[in-house]
Design brief:
Layout: H1 5-26, E1 35-40, E2 48-54, E3 60-61, E4 70-72, E5 74-82, E6 92-94, E7 104-106, E8 110-112, E9 124-126, H2 130-135, H3 139-144, E10 149-154, E11 160-167, E12 170-176
Antiparallel strand pairs: 1-2, 2-5, 3-4, 4-9, 5-8, 6-7, 10-11, 11-12
Length: about 180
């Protein structure tokens, strides 16, 4: 696959520019173990992020990995914003993620999982870092940006699952990693 280095650098910098804005938006919440980050969908899967806070009685299932998917039975919504415009805020979002139960994220309110079980993969999905939440389900955004370069997807334990190669917004190939 032939990559135009100039285009690659342009799109890489666009993604990095968004990540820098998201990190600035989330700065006051990172480093606090009670604050977590979710990728959630509005019009399409993974186009928004939410900053959430664990309640005093929140039950969680977490990994030591910073990239792993974590689960909770309840979380308080602190703020919601589009991944492609982190300076913008919205008050509520009906999640369309993974076609399961649709959660309604509302700023200042507690969302509760319809079902939570540490033995089964249920509950409200979140990440410990804004970076992991940003990259979750970002493929449609990469397409819009006409991104050229690599994108990693992670297993639930935080290890690399696959590396995808994009050329001008189209996924050209992937390299699946063994579990």
């Amino acid at each position: 696959m032939k990559i135009n280095v100039r285009e690659y650098l342009l799109y890489y910098h666009q993604v990095q520019f968004l990540m820098d804005k998201i990190l600035a938006r989330c700065a006051q919440y990172t480093g606090n173990a009670n604050m977590v980050f979710a990728s959630c969908g509005g019009e399409r899967r993974g186009d928004h992020m939410a900053i959430l806070e664990k309640c005093h009685d929140t039950k969680t299932f977490e990994s030591n990995s910073m990239n792993a998917i974590c689960r909770a039975d309840r979380l308080k919504t602190i703020c919601i914003f589009p991944k492609n415009n982190p300076e913008m805020s919205i008050d509520r979002l009906q999640n369309t993620h993974f076609g399961g139960p649709r959660l309604l994220y509302e700023v200042g309110k507690i969302i509760k999982a319809e079902e939570y079980n540490e033995e089964i993969y249920t509950g409200i999905q979140y990440y410990k870092t804004p970076q992991a939440a940003f990259y979750c389900d970002i493929q449609p955004l990469l397409g819009e940006m006409k991104y050229t370069g690599e994108y990693c997807n992670y297993n639930i334990d935080g290890t690399v699952y696959a590396i995808y190669y994009f050329d001008n917004g189209e996924m050209k190939s992937s390299n699946l990693r063994p579990w």
